[in-house]
Amino acid sequence: AGKAHRLSGEERDQLLPNLRAVGWNELDGRDAIYKEFHFKDFNRVHITLSTHECGGLSERDINLASFIEQ
């Protein structure tokens, strides 16, 4: 895998709508996405995704969020 790059506005417009549709949101004040999952036996889990290497949201984060939804 090559070096991660921070998503451009155009890439975000293309990649984020499908994740927003299933409850992922951009995190205010941080270049990241998050989602809170609720479980009856574990209460809740809050997941925040951002790539340290590029200092923000990358395609790696989008891919991981998509994998989590499978």
Within CATH, the superfamily carries the name Transcriptional coactivator/pterin dehydratase
Strands, total number: 3
Number of helices: 2
Over all CA atoms, what is the radius of gyration? 12 Å
N-end to C-end Cα span = 22 Å
Q: In the CATH classification, which architecture applies? A: 2-Layer Sandwich
Instruction: Give helix % range.
Output: 25-40%
Question: What top-tier CATH class fits best?
Answer: Alpha Beta
What is the approximate shape?
A: globular
The residue-averaged pLDDT reads 94
Here the CATH topology equals: Gyrase A, domain 2
Characteristic key phrases:
70 residues, alpha+beta, Gyrase A, domain 2, 2 helices, transcription, PCD_sf, Pterin-4-alpha-carbinolamine dehydratase
Describe the structure.
- There is one protein chain.
- By secondary structure, this protein is α+β, with helices and mostly antiparallel strands.
- The chain has one domain (9-68): Transcriptional coactivator/pterin dehydratase (Gyrase A, domain 2), CATH 3.30.1360.
- 31% of the residues lie in helices and 23% in strands.
- It has 2 helices and 3 strands, in the order αβββα.
- It has helices at 9-20, 59-68; strands spanning 25-26, 33-39, 43-49.
- Strands 1-2-3 form a 3-stranded antiparallel beta sheet, with helices on one face.
- Strand 1 and strand 2 form a beta hairpin.
- The longest helix is centred in the first third of the chain and has 12 residues, at 9-20.
- The model has no long low-confidence stretch (mean pLDDT 94).
